[in-house]
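step=predict obj=Phosphoglycerate kinase n=395
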Amino acid sequence: MRGLDELDVKGRRVLVRADLNVPLDGDVITDDGRIRASLPTIRELAGKGAKVIVCAHLGRPKGQVKPEFSLAPVAKRLSELLGEPVAFAADVVGDSARATVAALEEGQVALLENLRYEPGEESKDDAARAEFAARLAMLADLYVGDGFGAVHRKHASVYDVPRQLPHAVGGLIAAEVDVLRKLTEDPARPYAVVLGGAKVSDKLKVIANLLTKVDRLLIGGGMAYTFLKAQGYEVGKSLLQEEQLDTVRGFLNEAASRGVDLVLPVDILAATEFAEDAEHEVVDATAIPADREGLDIGPRTRELFAQKLADAETVFWNGPMGVFEFEAFSGGTRAVAEALVRSEAFTVVGGGDSAAAVRKLGLPEDGFSHISTGGGASLEYLEGKELPGLIALED
């Protein structure tokens, strides 16, 4: 992959595919982490005299113009963070986009409206996607791929446009790929992975692949209850994927045969209902009352997980340990995050809810070796998949 230093960008229109898919409460951005992660590449290009055209998606408008998915709040925040005006185009490849780009001077930045307003962006039809990509490519002279959170998607702005323009990889994607190679090619050992989140089904392939690579696999969050049930324990009203029980039993058997230390919760916080103020108690993970549901790992599990991480040399964490959005059930996620901060290991937070939790809990981002901007992309890389957006950026 070519880096930014291999492109002559002065005076040229550079289309940057960024990942600005931030959470919104109305038009208020509740976590600007992805915008901040995009700043270095945008600043570098602008500093070299490029006319920078940023494109990105937000949410899932599914090819329709829906005001609640407008990137207008992102343009405002991007301008604040850059300390420079950011021109905002009211469409993606229409009159506003063309006029906005035409008005750019060297070193200036513009943001196009939500890519996913255009049906061609996500089209499964190669011709429809390529046609939209051609219209997008006409706005620019060069392309820089820097939206790591979207590289696992075969979308026009990610896959087709870089095949139509001279291209390079931005600093964010370059850093992400470097980190993922460290996790997959020759990780320092012991290598521990912590997986959480709601569903086992979301992580079937990554678990299968990791069982061939890791020394320890710690399972928390909603997915842990399917593992506990697979061992024959009562899980009450906890999240359970009955259809995955046989698969999970297979994982347990493979871990045992490979000598992988697969660690499950030993106690949990069992609540009367899924609510922030729900009555709850600490119970053994092997004896969850039938009328309760697990919403977080318990204090003994937090200590156990911290012990398992203490001497690790490499740690990858993806997925919260409980319903961290509720203060009463955020302790498990905090405990894992703090264990990583204390660790001297190479520690990687795998994007998505894990990265959001780090920020929500007020933990120092520089306490981790790397915080990924793309949870889904990171997981698919760790599954061993080829990612369309990375393939398109190869020379």
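step=describe
The radius of gyration is 22 Å.
step=end
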